[in-house]
Amino acid sequence: MTSHLSPAAQFAAAAAAEAEAEAVALAESVSAAAIVDSVTADEGLPVPYLAICPAAPPGYVPPEFTDEATAPVVDCVDVTAATASAVDENVARQVSSAAVMFENAAVDSAVGSDDGNSDVVVEERKSKVVDLNDQELFPALGGGSAKAPVAWGAKSAGPRPVANDLKPKRATEVVDLPMMQEAVGQAVLKIMERTGARIDVSHNGVLATSTYVISGPIDSVNRAKREVITKLSPRVTQVVAVPAEARSAVVGVRGRGLQTIQTKTGAVLSVARDGDSFDAGDAFATVDVSISGDSIGVAAAVAMVEAAADKRTTRRVAFETVPREAHALLVGKGGAGLRGLQAAHPGVTLRIPGPLDSGVAVGVAGDRAAVQAACAHIHEVSNALMSGSQVLCVAVAKRQHRFVVGDKGCGLRDIALATGCSVIVPPPRAASDQISVRGSPVDLPLAVQMVLERAASSAIDTFDPAQAAGAYGRPLLYAQRALRYFHDRARFRRIESEHGAVLRVAAPAAIASATDPAQLVIEITAPSPVSVAGARAALASLFAAFPPHHFNGIDVEPHQVSLLAESVSRLQSVRSVYTLLSPTGGVLVIYEGFNPDVDRVADPAERERKTRELLRQTLEEFRSTLAVSEQPVTLVAQVPVVQQAAMSSSQESLLKAASASEGANRVVLRFGSIASAETPAQNSRVTPRKEEALAAESVEVRGPAEAAARVVAELERRVAQAAASLALRSFRADVSVPQSLVARVVGRGGETLKKLRAGRDVTIDVGDNSVRIVGIRADVEAVSTEISALVERLADETSETIVVAAELHRALIGSGGKFVKRLGDKYHVRIQFPKNGNGESNDDDEPLGADQIRIRGSRAGVASAKSELLELAAYEIEHGHTAKFTVPADCLPHVVGRAGSRISEIKDASDTRIDLGDASAGPTVDVTIVGTRSGVAQARAAIEAVVAEQQSQADEVVVVANKHHRYLIGAGGTRVRELVKLAGGDPDAAAGAGSCRVQFPRSGSADTDSVRLKGDRVIVAAVRQRIEELVAERERQVTVSVDIPASQHAFVIGRGGSHLKQLQETHEVEINFPRRGAQSESTAVKISGLPENCEAASAALLALVRDETKLSVTLSQHQRMGGRTSALWRRMRSEFGVQVDAGRVDRAPAKPAFDEDSVGDVVYVDVALDGLSAEWILRGEASKLPAAIEAVNVALAATNEPVVDARLRVDPRSHRHVIGKQGAMIAKIRDATNCDVTVPARGSQSPWVSIAGPRSEVDRAIEMINDAIEERA
């Protein structure tokens, strides 16, 4: 019977069997009726239960069940058989489901039951004769006079505790748990020390289980069993999906359902929020219940959660697993199959997975019976469809499979709906290229045709980078280098955008780890073959531009990479060599072109040799840099594995420890417990340093000696700090808490514990009758003190109900419950109002009357809160004066204010409560004010003032022709604001006294002539009158024309329109000049306004007209001395008030083409300007024009030197010296010589610098350029 058990279980069974003799002896010595009475009284056994007796007559009824109809069934067996049965039952229970095991172990652990009624095996003891007179075995039962034994079937006067003496003093428990990953020996020894029980452990490697045989006194065994299950069972987490509508049944009222399950199982449960996990309208909506704890507790909690869900809802969500190929067959052509299934089972909802949802079964939701019938039908239909269908396999190139699948499976879905066939595409990593099509013989041809059409819907081609290596002996290395470089420079993106193609290029990690050139082939996909061909040609050109000799590289130590980073940008600008540095030590140099020493070589072989030499020099420079650096050292520090992950993620802060020494940025760490994810650098010449195996608790530090030593010291410091912190946080204290107060100490949803932990470094574990706090001593002592005080307060808790008129409850609660919350926090009490109020409520309390308030807390707190509540009620009665009146409904928004701001201000100022009626109920609104007599009067006065103010407002419409609107508004609204201000109003006021808002119609509105005036009635009337006056004046306006020469318009208008603005403001007219740029420039200037104002403005305009004269100068003089920014023209304006403009300028001939191969360092280019001229127009007062003309002629006479254009030969490498830093040098030369100096663009190979200006200044500029180059040489 026990051969199938583990060795520990067999030992327990044998120990129990050997104890049979004593049990038999004890049973024979005691009256059977007494045993039955005592056992039933002490054990409280459920129905049915087992009574131990020698034999029982048929129909026996226990004494406490007088009614045979309600009496439980009693199985009476021989003691020996009962003991053996108990052993068998114990053994069977150990190998049963986890939920049943929980009934034996986990419930006892969580609830703390020490009644000794669990299945135990009695220890072996020597058999002895039982003396019925032994007071130790059979103590006297109170009275002194012996009672006659109770006969079979007779009623007992009460339970007898004789069975207590039959309980074994020692017990043995057998617990099977999943095997722990770590050793449990030390933990078992500690449990044995704490509980005094003996624990034997055996392991079954095949089943991965551990058996714990616990023996000793019953109390010790029970305590040890709880600790074993809690501490030696692996922590597991399981997620249970329950129907959405059953969520409330699982959670319970205020979470009591979850708390009950957690208390009984010791597991931790969390339920997702309603909106986070499901849609209320989804028939398949489920709620995820996450359960964490030991394996036995989790299994028991799962069973309890599922049982709670089953009790709440008759609906059921089932998932029927069918072959993946059957999904599309069930849907059918056009969804006909799915509609047929739904019609056959109208009481359920079906959901069939899509083509890419291969891991999801068919969902069925509905009534339990209907769901079962639908599942059976689906299974039957699925088998019939699978057996009646055929399969065709189509060979399609692997790279074209994604076209068949389509975006998010749309291709497979379209084929399934069109044909009713299922298309199975092998996974991308599978080697097979066969696509399976399953369906009816009639629909298979169309489905295969659609598969082939989708496969051919896009053009595709490949490009092998290794083939671009040509005769190079290592094509894989070339492909890796080129792809890595092109990835870094984003060259592939440019090709994709230019040709509308998609390039599938291996990722950088795959490139580095490739062992075959076939792994690096580039796949090209595009809608048309033309685009594919264009992209392929672009790839070929790209690789051809970077042949193998454009790449070279070396491998260095990882910590040395940072030494080379400083030279990268310099080498790229000076040598056109791009450098790629890898964190693992790989250095790759690439020649990008644009180096004159290489590109000017015509012979390909020589150019290749120079390229190789350039890269070799670059690598030699790198080697020289590394050669002079300090040789690295390797140090090893011991760091616990549990700390290495955190240190690895914070390497930057670790390396800062070496910041005081040189080479701090060249320290590399390698953690023994963390495998390196970097691919080692590969090179054709250098073999990287082979890394030795590193112990799990070791950290290798490699780098300069001083920096590495600093990092090791920092590692050791952090390890010591962590150990000290752990020791510091190991202080613990236990606080006794009565079982009845545990839930109160935890608080609703753990709220009390969260408050206790806030700001403190402690952990709090709640047991059956105690709370354990572990952490820093000061925090632990503080939390212990608070919990002890809380327990004392809860033990002293009382409740009292007071009577307060219901109409005062709202005032006592306060806005948002602020008053009642303040009282609760102040006196540590809970205040409950009737359920129709806004206070707290508890479903376990007796319902409150409409005028009752319950206060619960400590006696002192309840008394204080009661006193303050009654005082507040008395205050409310005293301040309960009420005023009721009405206001016009159209004034209510103004009384309330924006977002209630005005009514809130009135409430706060008067300290009253104001209730407003419904504005839609009629023309008036009821207003109720409650407060003190003065406060009510103040609030009423404020509200009536608002109403009076609103009634003083006017809203009028003035009809004004649209043509006058722009004038009335003015520039930026200035005129309309001035109108309001002149009327005595405030143009910034939006409403109230003195306000007046003028609203003009929007463009495109139906009524374009209506102007709305809204605001203070008096101001509105004044503004309306003024608008009507202005409109009348506008109707009298005339428009006159004044001829002013077009050449004088700019001067008359003035700089920035200054003259024009002054004239318009002074004479109150509108002046319009003709637009410039017309083919025939008009001289007529329009003036609009009152006749007398137009006449005055015309005279003022004509007074601004100036005399003008023309002067002819050579084109050379114009280029040198003319222009609005020239010194000569500015001098004429400042000294003589004469404005100079260019009327006509001859076009200079194009410069002759310059021969780049000219001989000599300086070449002068003749510019033929003879015979070319320009015409200057001078405008000013007649008295000042002669003097200005004379000054111009004098200045022109002093500048008769001809302009020349010279070319200076400068080595392109020295062009940057001519330009200077940020153009400083060339700007200096231009300012000093007044010459135009032009340097060839960057990248150009032309050596010629262009200089244009007078001959003497050109020679000076050449001299300055040569001096600048010699200084930088």
TrEMBL record:
Return the Pfam families for the record. Answer: KH_1, KH_Vigilin
K Homology domain segment(s): 234-310, 311-383, 386-456, 729-792, 796-874, 879-948, 952-1032, 1036-1106, 1202-1270
Q: Which InterPro entries match?
A: KH_dom (IPR004087), KH_dom_type_1 (IPR004088), KH_dom_type_1_sf (IPR036612), KH_Vigilin_N (IPR057778)
Molecular function terms in GO for this entry?
A: RNA binding
Q: Which domain of life is it from?
A: Eukaryota
Q: List keywords of the entry alphabetically.
A: Repeat, RNA-binding
Concerning Gene3D superfamilies, the annotation shows:
K Homology domain, type 1
Q: Which PANTHER family match?
A: KH DOMAIN CONTAINING RNA BINDING PROTEIN
Instruction: List the protein's name.
Output: K Homology domain-containing protein
> What organism is this sequence from?
Coemansia spiralis
